[in-house]
Specification:
249 residues, alpha+beta, Lipocalin, TATA-Binding Protein, 2 domains, 14-stranded mixed sheet, two-stranded antiparallel ribbon, 16 strands, globular, Regulatory protein YycI of two-component signal transduction system YycFG
């Protein structure tokens, strides 16, 4: 056996391992730095309130503040509206984690599936939740397409049939920043010990049995570890807690 050659191989192997470990350490430190940067986007008095109320924010605080306008939508009368429809051919539920494959697999049964986005935090073991997208980007919360699974296969679905009317681009306004919306929640609404696990921008719309056009405004959604959710209207800053069916200013 050529011990000299073997020694060189071991040295190169250790060097490669050190490079991999060094990159991993750098990546972890970078992520920690990014997290700290997000956290310091909150004002100092808000951070103090977090400490006093033992509130934790585990979600990354988004920095984007796009200009969005209000929209309207209406419920569409359809025989399949809100009815559970069985799929002719069950689909392997693991595709839910690859949206493009999911859309391709279900486009025959649900041609509009590509216009929806999977909502992982709102989904459960045998019920996957998707929301229609406004302008192909922003989820319309509270309006749902539900995929039901059994034995690791998607076997049926249920959805609310709607038609979205885009808002007036001339009236688009820059939305409230996520850090300001979160600060308002921390100071005035979140209970002691609350843990924020997700923050996402979309549209908030209520569901009524009406054929009239219903308004929907851009809103930040905050999900807590307890399952409770809060929405902060992106223009007015109003806080909505659907769990208690109250709107607060």
């Amino acid at each position: 056996m050529d011990w000299g050659r073997a020694k060189n191989v071991l040295i190169y192997a250790f060097l490669l391992l050190n490079m991999v470990l060094g990159y991993q350490l750098w990546n972890d430190l970078q992520e920690q730095a990014d997290s700290n940067l997000d956290f310091t986007s909150l004002e100092s008095n808000i951070q103090q309130t977090m400490d006093d109320k033992r509130i934790k924010v585990l979600a990354k605080i988004p920095t984007e503040t796009p200009q969005l306008s209000k929209i309207s939508y209406r419920l569409v009368e359809d025989e399949q509206d809100n009815k559970v429809i069985e799929l002719e051919q069950p689909i392997d539920s693991k595709l839910i984690y690859t949206p493009r494959d999911l859309a391709n697999a279900l486009k025959t049964s649900i041609p509009e599936i590509g216009d929806y986005r999977y909502d992982e935090p709102a989904s459960r073991a045998e019920e996957f939740i998707l929301h229609p997208l406004v302008n192909g980007e922003w989820p319309l919360f509270k309006i749902e397409l539900k995929l039901y699974s059994s034995n690791q296969k998607i076997v049926s679905y249920q959805r609310q049939m709607i038609e979205i009317s885009s808002g007036d681009e001339d009236k688009a306004q820059r939305v409230l920043s996520a850090s300001k919306a979160l600060g308002n929640l921390i100071e005035n609404f979140l209970p002691e010990g609350a843990v924020v696990t997700q923050i996402e921008l979309g549209y908030y719309g209520e569901v009524f049995n009406s054929d009239a056009h219903l308004p929907a405004a851009p809103a930040w959604r905050f999900l807590l570890e307890s399952g409770k959710e809060y929405y902060v209207q992106g223009i007015s800053g109003d806080v909505i807690s659907p769990n208690t069916e109250k709107t607060k200013e």
